[in-house]
Amino acid sequence: MKSHDLIIVGAGIVGAACADYASAEGLRVAIVEPGPIGGGATAAAMGHLVAMDDDPAELALAHYSLGLWEAFVDLPQAEYSRCGTLWIASNQADYARIPDKLARLAAAGVHAEQVDAEQLYRLEPALAAGLAGGMRVPGEAVVYPPGVAQYLIGQAMARGAQLYRQRAHQLNSGGVRLSDNTQLSGNVLIATGCALPQLLPQLPMRSRKGHLVITDRHPGLVHHQLLELGYADSAHGSDDSSVAFNVQPRPTGQILIGSSREYGSETADISMTMVRRMLARTLQFLPGLSELDAIRIWTGFRPVSVDGLPYLGRAPQHANVWVAAGHEGLGVTTSLGSARILIDQLLGRATAIDPRPYDPMRVAA
Amino acid sequence: MTDRYDVLVVGAGPAGLAAAHAAASHGARVGLIDEQMTAGGQVWRQDVQHASPALARRSIGRTLDHPAIDWLAQTRVVTVEDGGLLVEDPRRARRLHYQTLVLATGARELLLPFPGWTLPGITGAGGLQALAKQGWPLAGRRVVIAGSGPLLLAAAATAKRHGAHVLGIYEQSSTENIQRFARSLWRWPAKAVQAMGLRAQLAGVPYRCGSVVRRAHGETELHAVDVDGPRGIEHIACDQLAVGYGLLANVELAQSLGCTLQLQGAHAYVDTDRYQRTSVDGIYAAGELCGIGGRDTARIEGAIAGHAAAGKTADADRLLQSRQHARHFADALNQCFALDPRVHALAQPDTLVCRCEDVSLSALDGYMDARSAKLATRCGMGACQGRICGSALAELGRFPRSGQRPPLFPARLSTLAGTNLSSINKP
Predict the structure, then answer these.
(1) Nearest to B410 among A146, A283, A295 (CB)
(2) What is the C-alpha to C-alpha distance for residues B163 and B150, in angstroms, rounded to an integer?
(3) pLDDT in tens, A83-108
(4) Do the domains B4-108+248-334 and B113-244 sit in the same CATH topology, yes or no?
């Protein structure tokens, strides 16, 4: 039997951030991950560091996390690029929503600015004609999430954390038993995203599939992370499938294209129907991209909790089990803040933001 | 033209041409697609300065002129969808449907990394041959040919015909292997004649066995190579190096269609039965795709696949024996040119393995599989989609190729978006 202060199951970006912070706080950490580090939803994430203003608790966690990301600006593995976010209003109705959004962001401490149509085309000349304007969030950035996850795990291991290349088979009173029958004892933190119910069936989790397309290198065509203002309607809607315009300039000069959302598709197969819908939407906003070459299409699954907010805290019905999972499309952005909130609670400390909205007990209540 | 064919053939090299012709001879409506502008594949690639061999002219002519065959040039398969193939040409995208499909996607070269291999002036052996045939100027240039296999001789002959000064052919296989093979050539008289023809064309060009290029020198372009052979290291000043370590089957389309693959050494080929049927109903494979077998094997297998795809297995039966003969030759050839383990040690820790993303060999240390390495280093994430580095790493025994993702080749966003789909005679 091997004893640890904290056994973290799952080395996606959330588990990795927890491992880094817990080990930095002096905990003896074990990490249980049978697959590649950052190989699940982390590898299928766009790596956009973004604050969404639709839900106050989500916004608070994002804003807290964005501050923590400033420590990664110069880390080569992070490929941090402060391209800013440009939300695009397709029509006057969307444009009219911007002042409210600015106010909500400002209240949370996020600086953003309205841009009119003329400024919009100056910022992004490749955009299609006829758009109403937009909202620019200059401080936001993009990172390379698998690189960050590997860096964070590396940091934890440099402080003595142990990596077990096994599957966590079963929770038990002492800790967790691994697939090779190794028993690890200590507090357990489950950060397995979509796979959470395998160990904690009492916490519902749905998988929401997404497709991504990346192009060959075409530097300078797009400058900001570009999203349509209607993005949140797709992200927060409960339709079985939806697409929204979401395009990102990678530091490599490649253009990364999202986004699609689909419930009910459990395999990683690429649906050309979804790809067509998603790219048709892209070309409506950026018609000049139509002759660019795509070099790769892939899919991933977002872990969706019962109410869209992550589960961060002690797991229901377990004394020594904690959970950090269910971040849906914001797991990269909010990973660093999630780790702080969780580990601070575990250590009995005050948290920087109110942790109650994320408390997994809300499901049992 | 139509979007629906009785038999759709992918690849217009010797195998695809033979398949299309055989199927059409039974009245099948045949579509023949190839990414190149002209038919013939790599081995019969048209030469802008010199006439094609008579056999190539005959095979191409009778196939492209056949009234039941639609020739779709410069057409690439982008991905498999909805029971058909999404293809694009330089102008538009199309969705092609078929009753039966014959895959004849041929082979590419195995390129192995060594210090300096990414310098301008260095190509594959087949790569140099293709450039020469397309009119790339070689006259007066000092050319070294290296690597392994009969392709080196063909590349040297082409280079010489285009005015290059071929300094030597450096074959990694041992003199004993080559001599043993030469002694067995009497079993394939046509091949013996072909070999003698090549030898005559290459009179005066040294052919050195047991030799490998260890290093290429140059700042902005190649100016010399170090060849390690039985006589030690030889420093050879040159302008051009063509180096290829044999051929690999282009299995990517077959794989995405779900066809069962087999491994030959570290590399995959498509598993077929006596009628060239793959494991997937209605899909046939022929030629290099089924294991490197050369032009003659490809022509016979193509014809078998074409007959069988049109439902005429009796015609296919008559070819089975000649296929066996041709495959035996290929087996002898593959044995003769089997790679010596020392070619696995050419790459140094700082040698680039992935040219698309500039990843060195040592950057891959410590990763347990191709996907972990790719996530961390981007190795294989570039436009070639890991065809070059993935095959090299498999050959080097690092990790097998994995994680193939669509599209099969870089494809226009408009093609994938379906915004530029042309549709003809939709039923």
Answers:
(1) A295
(2) 21
(3) 999 999 999 999 999 999 999 999 99
(4) yes
- What does the domain layout of chain B look like in residue ranges? 4-108+248-334, 113-244, 341-395
Size of interface A-B (CB pairs under 8 A): 90
Is residue B81 pLDDT above 90, yes or no? no
- pLDDT greater than 70 at residue B423: no
CA angle A276, A281, A282 (to 5 degrees): 100
A334 and A61 Cβ atoms separated by less than 8 Å: yes
In this predicted structure, what is the pLDDT of residue A41?
A: 97
ipTM of this predicted complex?
0.93
Residues of chain A neighbouring B412 (CB-CB closer than 8 A) = 290-294
Three-state SS for chain A is CEEEEEEEECCCHHHHHHHHHHHHCCCCEEEECCCCCCCCHHHHCCCEECCCCCCHHHHHHHHHHHHHHHHHCCCHHHCCECCCEEEEECCHHHHHCHHHHHHHHHHHCCCCEEEEHHHHHHHCCCCCCCCCEEEEECCCEECCHHHHHHHHHHHHHHCCCEEECCCEEEEECCEEEECCCCEEEEEEEECCHHHHHHHCCCCCCEEEEEEEEEEEECCCCCCCEEEECCHHHHHHCCCCEEEEEEEEECCCCEEEEEEEEECCCCCCCCCHHHHHHHHHHHHHHCHHHHHCEEEEEEEEEEEECCCCCCEEEECCCCCCEEEEECEHHHHHHHHHHHHHHHHHHHCCCCCCCCCHHHCCHHHHC
Give the tokens for residue A142. 């993009």
Token reading at B126: 């087949």
- Structural domains in chain A plus CATH codes: 2-45+145-204+307-364 (3.50.50.60), 85-138+206-304 (3.30.9.10)
Shortest distance between the Cα of A346 and any Cα of chain B, in A, equals: 31
Name the stretches of chain A with pLDDT < 70: 236, 238, 365
Among B368, B369, B375, the residue with its CB nearest the CB of A146 is: B375
Find where tokens 């050839």 sit.
Answer: B333
**What is the CATH code of the structural domain delimited by B4-108+248-334?**
3.50.50.60
Q: Which CATH class is domain B113-244?
A: alpha beta
Give the residue on B whose Cα is nearest the Cα of A274: B417
| Predicted confidence band of residue B426 (pLDDT cuts 50, 70, 90) | very low
- Average pLDDT score, chain B: 94
